[in-house]
């Protein structure tokens, strides 16, 4: 692992302006807890018993990805946009003293709260397996192919270069590793006027992707076995509904990927929870193996935009 603790320069191009805005937004949110920021998230209280109150007060997630990830003792997890550290501290208990947990965040104020509280968590657990590193989602300060699980809780929507983030997640995962991401998903593409609103971006609204775009980023970056859980309707802004989703994807080893090059896969992206096509049920967000003929038929129908087809 690369142990560099600081890697954030202040380079300023068009995208960095937005990232700097997000950084400023979360510096403030670290110093003074914002009750109504992001979604209310229900954690299992048992998972939180070793975590100091100060961390819980600045928890700005929209799901609880670690609890669903099936982490094993000894595994390595990276949490992107770790904030006050809540998901890292939950994971630290799951992976035990032989495991490793890395929290990545660009905001100094968030990192210093996470690091300060880490000392108490380490005392409570009786071992130290947690490290917080300063860094960007788009350039993760972790070496290639050394991570079992990547999580992120209400953060990817904040990135201005989402494809870079998926590329980086793929790079750091081991073959066979997976991501579990809780994030805000918009029912339709967010209009440009809302995207330029810095407050709405910071509040996890304007940067939200549609489900289809989220899955396309994952698919374009070679993730397979995409699985979606639609958690709840968060809120409606300017007539657009924003939902909390938890999405999982796997990095298959090259052996698994070369099993059948002639297979096709379809992912149904909504708007319904599932549809039947030619006797096959396509559940929202689940990858279904199909033959070439079915792939061609789906691709030529008027509802082809509701499917992602890959081979
Ligand atoms: C909505 S908060 C969520 C924090 C944490 N995941 C939680 O559940 O409480 C977003 C966090 O992501 C960080 N962040 C946003 N964009 C980032 C980026 N591009 N690179 C690194 N960190 C980022 C912010 O500094 C902030 O701490």
Can you walk through the features of this model?
The longest helix has 18 residues, at 14-31. It contains 12 helices and 13 strands. Mean pLDDT is 89; it is low at 1-17. It folds into 2 domains: 14-255, Vaccinia Virus protein VP39 (Rossmann fold); 260-311, Ribosomal Protein L9, domain 1 (3-Layer(aba) Sandwich). The chain is globular. The relative contact order is 0.12. The chain is α/β, with parallel strands linked by helices and 311 residues long. The strands form 3 sheets. Strands 1, 2, 3, 4, 5, 6, 7 and 8 form an 8-stranded mixed β-sheet that branches. Strands 12-9-13 form a 3-stranded antiparallel β-sheet. Helix content is 33%, strand content 27%. S-adenosylmethionine binds next to helix 1 and helix 5.
List the helices and strands and how they pair.
Layout: H1 14-31, H2 45-48, H3 53-57, H4 65-68, E1 76-80, H5 86-95, E2 100-105, H6 108-125, E3 130-134, E4 147-153, H7 162-172, E5 173-186, H8 192-195, H9 198-202, E6 209-210, H10 211-220, E7 224-237, E8 240-250, H11 254-257, E9 264-268, E10 274-277, E11 280-283, E12 287-290, H12 292-300, E13 307-310
Parallel strand pairs: 1-2, 1-4, 2-3, 4-5, 5-6
Antiparallel strand pairs: 5-8, 7-8, 9-12, 9-13, 10-11
Helix pairs in contact: 1-6, 5-6
The structure holds S-adenosylmethionine (SAM).
Q: What descriptive keywords fit this protein?
A:
single chain; 311 residues; alpha/beta; Rossmann fold; Ribosomal Protein L9, domain 1; binds S-adenosylmethionine
